[in-house]
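2.7 Reproducibility. Because tokenized structures are sensitive to small changes in the input, we list the exact sequence used for DUF2851 domain-containing protein, including any N-terminal residues retained from the expression construct. No trimming or masking was applied before prediction.
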Amino acid sequence: MTNLYENLLFPSLRQMMHEKSESYESLRERHVQIMWLEQKFFTLLHTTQGFPIQILSPGIWNAEAGPDFLKAHIKIGQQELRGDIELHLTARQWEEHKHNRDSRYNQVILHVAFWEDKQEKELFTSLGESIYQCYLEKSLTTPIPKICQSIDIELYPYEQFVGSGRCAEEIFQKISEDDLKTLFTSASRWRLKQKWAHLNAEITDPSLRFLTGIAGVLGYKNNTAAFQQLFQWIFPFRQLPKENLLVLAMGVCGFFNTHFQNLWKDSVYYQQLFHIFLSTFSHLTLPQFKLHLHQIRPFNHPVRRLALLLELVCNESFLTLEHALNAFWERSWREISNEKEGGLFYKQLMLHFPQFISTYWSTHYTFEEKAQENSLSLLGDDLKGKILLNVFCPALFHRISLKEDLEQLSAFHLFYSSIPHFPSRKTRYLIHRFFGNMTRGKCMKQGVIEQGAYQLHRDFCLHYEASCIGCPFVDRYHASQK
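Resulting structure tokens (single pass, no recycling of outputs):
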């Protein structure tokens, strides 16, 4: 089943770069755009004529039609240039996309291609002016698979799609429910592989991989990397009192700056923590971990997650959680012969998570003065489920796949299919994009379908977000059914 989705992904590489021997790790033009925006993963660029390129400003990311970046400022040799930047996977795409006939591209001062074409060709604007070119591949500082695993393309700007997609009308409206489930399940299994590859690439210490993965889940999408880095930095200090660790974590995350001092000035507990910071840590040179705090609900505020992060550091039950979950799997997987038993196993697995109650955080979102009437859990079932989905399952799937144990793999898929969905704004968006007003959108209430939809969006839709024009998914799917 996994091959179905992988076969939908890989043809583009064979069609575009069949002479290349590098392994394909879902490299897309958006990865190249992000590399340019961040000016990461490459160094010492030169034009095809050999002139050194200095990037003074990469320009403004353009979400509209036209060049990828506007108003860039670069220096080529001794010549300073201001204008637009266009990026592609290969240089020949300049003419394939007819930019040489499009006046919107007349201000392009540099064409950046990831791969070098077999035959180099001079590029021109519609005015007949020659354009400087360069290739990123020659200047990479990081292997291609590592680049793809390190970049979360969903964190970067794109123009929102406003209608249902071409796939809704031409595929999802017409195929059987069984074929629909097969497709999305196949995509979800590819997603498991990608999650494991990311964990394995980003977390080099195997003994901390599981806990660091959990730390990433606590950070949610926008703060995943920051929480993982913070956990790895603070873990060696786990012998300190837990309250001091909280103070230290808050300090390196900027929660004692002037803004938060004013925001939480009426909180007695915050003032106590601030006093500890001033007396114990303020004289030290500490790293800084930048957190994204916009559009976050109080219940998910990063300062609450810091309190839970320190449980990963100090709580012995968390330190042994991976072993407990794996041991339970080894004892029990043979009892899973259908999805109902998979669901029962999922519920039993949840019981292995540590049970603890925080006197303060069970009644406060952050440092508000008035305590909340309802009890607030730091580690609820929703968060436990996401930890299983994003950390435990990818690692378990990888381990079982290496064994080539088909019976155990079948039990895993029954268990994985029983994991509930975790509805979000993105889920609602994908229901509309993939299914429009069709009742079939209800299938997204199954966790495995939701995960497959997320992966389909990541691999295909995200690169054609404003419309379906140019998206190869529909044509590839039809070709795969012949």
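The longest strand covers residues 79-90.
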